[in-house]
Specification:
8 helices; binds zinc ion; five-stranded mixed beta sheet; 15% strand; binds 3-methyl-2-(propanoyloxy)benzoic acid; binds calcium ion; single chain; 313 residues; alpha+beta
Length: 313
């Protein structure tokens, strides 16, 4: 019996209904998307459950009637597809390795797990404890953030410490919100899954990093130790500075989200390396804007101004 693409329906973490690309195979349906361009070389999007344990990838999800009720799985699958589409259609990248690698996600990792991560091979999502987070795959910006960690690992390789680590985090926040593409003037991160009991809050804000205790200027840079307690030199803290730079750039009149994404992606994949510092990201994004739009373009000028506004360059 051959695989056949099928269209299922599912309920997401926030109770919304969405259509899913699934695989009808022998007696049932698998949570496997075989409709993407990468399928021409065998690439798929597959979603698994760890069944509240920590063995990965766990079990590929199946369903008898193609109506999916595992909300965390529905969103992990749907949002991985959306992220693939953005990278392929807007940036010309074929999966995280640019060679059509299969994208695997596992949900229901451990218990009350307030975390999500790329483990070097796949995405992994906890269900949260119901207070700090609800199921973490329920936010497209967060899913795209995790997948962008994979892209960064395969390209610039920004090490996860100090300024390169804060750049690693910032590129994931930037691409995460570009993929999510909400009309959110605050450019928040994780707003859809953070504290389900409190409206309007988030993990981070790109428009006002200070709101979540992040610096938004070099003169507020936090010198922290490269330890777990020090957030590896403040990778989720000092990311506020490049995040604010991107926010100032993308909100400059005449700058489009698509063009901002092309510039940041080109800097990440063509110019940055493992130990790049904030000044190198400034130079790389100016160079990328120059490559794409010209030396005296609105884009190149706005990029330089944006970094200067946060004290870089
Ligand atoms: C916005 C995505 C994010 O920050 O995910 C993480 C969470 C929720 C906890 C710890 C680390 C991360 C990460 O991916 O950096
Ligand atoms: Ca967001
Ligand atoms: Zn991250």
């Amino acid at each position: 019996v051959n695989h056949a693409a099928a269209t299922g329906t599912g309920t997401g973490v926030l109770g919304d209904t969405k259509t899913l690309n699934t695989d009808s195979y022998s007696s049932g349906y698998y949570l496997r998307d075989i409709t993407k361009p990468m399928y021409s070389t065998g690439g798929k999007i597959e979603t698994y459950t760890a069944n509240y344990g920590t063995a990965l990838p766990g079990t590929l999800l199946t369903d008898a009637d193609n109506v999916w009720t595992d909300r965390a799985a529905v969103d992990a699958h749907y949002y991985a597809g959306k992220t693939y589409d953005y990278y392929y259609n807007k940036l010309g990248r074929n999966s995280f390795d640019n060679r059509g690698a299969t994208m695997k996600s596992t949900v229901h990792y451990s218990r009350n797990y307030n975390n999500a991560f790329w483990n070097g091979t796949q995405m992994v999502y906890g269900d949260g404890d119901g207070r700090q987070f609800t199921s973490l795959s329920g936010a497209l910006d967060l899913v795209a953030h995790e997948i962008t960690h994979a892209v960064t690992e395969r390209t610039a390789g920004l090490v996860y410490e100090y300024q390169p680590g804060a750049l690693n985090e910032s590129f994931s926040d930037v691409l995460g919100n570009l993929v999510e593409n909400k009309n959110d003037p605050k450019w928040l991160l994780g707003e859809d899954v953070t504290t389900p009991g409190i409206a309007g809050d988030a993990l981070r804000s790109m428009s006002n990093p200070n709101e979540y205790d992040q610096p938004d200027h070099m003169n507020e840079y936090r010198n922290l130790p490269n330890t777990r307690e020090g957030d590896w030199g403040g990778v989720h803290i000092n990311s506020g500075i490049p995040n604010k730079a991107f926010y100032n750039f993308v909100t400059t009149p005449g700058i489009t989200k698509d063009n901002a994404g092309k510039i940041w992606y080109r800097a990440l994949t063509q110019y940055l390396t493992s130990y790049s510092q904030f000044i190198d990201a400034r130079n790389a994004t100016i160079q990328a804007a120059t490559d794409l739009f010209g030396a005296n373009s609105l884009e190149a000028t706005a990029v330089a101004n944006a970094w200067a506004s946060v004290g870089v360059g």
